[in-house]
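User: My advisor asked me to double-check a structure prediction for Integrase catalytic domain-containing protein before group meeting. I don't want to rely on an old file, so could you generate it fresh from this sequence?
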Amino acid sequence: MQIEAPLPSERVVPSAPFTITGIDFAGPVNIRCLKPRDIAYIALFTCATTRALHIELVSDLTTDKFLLALQRFVGRRGLPNTIYTDNATTFHVANKQLILLWQIL
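Assistant: Sure, here is a fresh prediction for Integrase catalytic domain-containing protein from the sequence you gave:
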Protein backbone atom coordinates (compact mmCIF):
# COMPACT_ATOMS: atom_id res chain seq x y z
CA MET A 1 0.00 0.00 0.00
CA GLN A 2 1.37 3.38 -0.99
CA ILE A 3 1.46 6.14 1.61
CA GLU A 4 0.20 9.45 0.28
CA ALA A 5 1.29 12.90 1.36
CA PRO A 6 -1.17 14.85 3.49
CA LEU A 7 -3.39 17.35 1.73
CA PRO A 8 -2.59 21.05 2.14
CA SER A 9 -4.41 22.66 5.05
CA GLU A 10 -6.28 24.96 2.62
CA ARG A 11 -7.99 21.89 1.17
CA VAL A 12 -9.11 20.28 4.43
CA VAL A 13 -9.94 23.19 6.77
CA PRO A 14 -13.58 24.25 6.31
CA SER A 15 -13.93 27.73 4.83
CA ALA A 16 -16.36 29.77 2.77
CA PRO A 17 -16.37 29.08 -0.99
CA PHE A 18 -13.68 30.90 -2.98
CA THR A 19 -11.81 32.01 0.17
CA ILE A 20 -8.81 30.25 -1.37
CA THR A 21 -8.85 30.59 -5.14
CA GLY A 22 -6.69 29.37 -8.00
CA ILE A 23 -6.66 31.32 -11.26
CA ASP A 24 -5.58 30.25 -14.73
CA PHE A 25 -6.37 30.96 -18.36
CA ALA A 26 -7.71 28.56 -20.98
CA GLY A 27 -7.93 29.08 -24.70
CA PRO A 28 -7.92 30.63 -27.18
CA VAL A 29 -11.49 29.77 -28.11
CA ASN A 30 -13.33 30.81 -31.24
CA ILE A 31 -16.48 32.82 -30.58
CA ARG A 32 -19.13 34.20 -32.87
CA CYS A 33 -20.00 37.73 -31.99
CA LEU A 34 -19.69 40.62 -34.41
CA LYS A 35 -16.92 39.09 -36.49
CA PRO A 36 -17.31 35.63 -38.01
CA ARG A 37 -14.15 34.36 -36.28
CA ASP A 38 -13.28 36.20 -33.12
CA ILE A 39 -10.91 34.82 -30.47
CA ALA A 40 -11.34 35.04 -26.70
CA TYR A 41 -9.84 33.42 -23.62
CA ILE A 42 -11.40 31.94 -20.50
CA ALA A 43 -10.32 33.02 -17.02
CA LEU A 44 -10.86 30.07 -14.67
CA PHE A 45 -11.34 30.80 -10.96
CA THR A 46 -11.23 27.56 -8.95
CA CYS A 47 -12.26 27.21 -5.30
CA ALA A 48 -9.65 25.15 -3.42
CA THR A 49 -12.13 23.96 -0.80
CA THR A 50 -15.21 22.99 -2.82
CA ARG A 51 -13.58 22.67 -6.28
CA ALA A 52 -16.31 24.97 -7.63
CA LEU A 53 -15.50 26.82 -10.84
CA HIS A 54 -16.21 30.43 -11.81
CA ILE A 55 -15.66 31.30 -15.48
CA GLU A 56 -15.08 34.74 -17.01
CA LEU A 57 -14.63 35.42 -20.73
CA VAL A 58 -11.79 37.83 -21.58
CA SER A 59 -10.91 39.24 -24.99
CA ASP A 60 -7.13 38.95 -24.54
CA LEU A 61 -4.46 38.03 -22.01
CA THR A 62 -3.47 41.56 -21.00
CA THR A 63 -3.22 42.61 -17.38
CA ASP A 64 -6.01 45.16 -17.80
CA LYS A 65 -8.47 42.55 -19.06
CA PHE A 66 -7.45 40.16 -16.28
CA LEU A 67 -7.98 42.83 -13.62
CA LEU A 68 -11.45 43.52 -15.03
CA ALA A 69 -12.25 39.79 -14.86
CA LEU A 70 -10.91 39.70 -11.28
CA GLN A 71 -13.11 42.69 -10.41
CA ARG A 72 -16.19 40.90 -11.78
CA PHE A 73 -15.22 37.76 -9.85
CA VAL A 74 -14.80 39.68 -6.57
CA GLY A 75 -18.09 41.48 -7.13
CA ARG A 76 -19.88 38.16 -7.55
CA ARG A 77 -18.03 35.82 -5.14
CA GLY A 78 -16.33 38.13 -2.63
CA LEU A 79 -12.67 38.92 -1.97
CA PRO A 80 -10.50 35.79 -1.59
CA ASN A 81 -8.00 35.55 1.28
CA THR A 82 -5.47 33.66 -0.87
CA ILE A 83 -5.00 33.51 -4.64
CA TYR A 84 -2.79 30.95 -6.37
CA THR A 85 -1.67 31.44 -9.99
CA ASP A 86 1.03 30.19 -12.30
CA ASN A 87 4.02 32.32 -13.34
CA ALA A 88 2.35 34.05 -16.29
CA THR A 89 3.48 37.63 -16.87
CA THR A 90 -0.11 38.84 -16.66
CA PHE A 91 -0.40 37.60 -13.08
CA HIS A 92 2.97 39.05 -12.01
CA VAL A 93 2.13 42.52 -13.35
CA ALA A 94 -1.36 42.37 -11.82
CA ASN A 95 0.16 41.39 -8.46
CA LYS A 96 2.46 44.43 -8.52
CA GLN A 97 -0.43 46.74 -9.44
CA LEU A 98 -2.66 45.32 -6.70
CA ILE A 99 0.11 45.66 -4.09
CA LEU A 100 0.56 49.33 -5.03
CA LEU A 101 -3.19 49.90 -4.86
CA TRP A 102 -3.40 48.19 -1.47
CA GLN A 103 -0.59 50.40 -0.10
CA ILE A 104 -2.40 53.54 -1.25
CA LEU A 105 -5.61 52.45 0.49
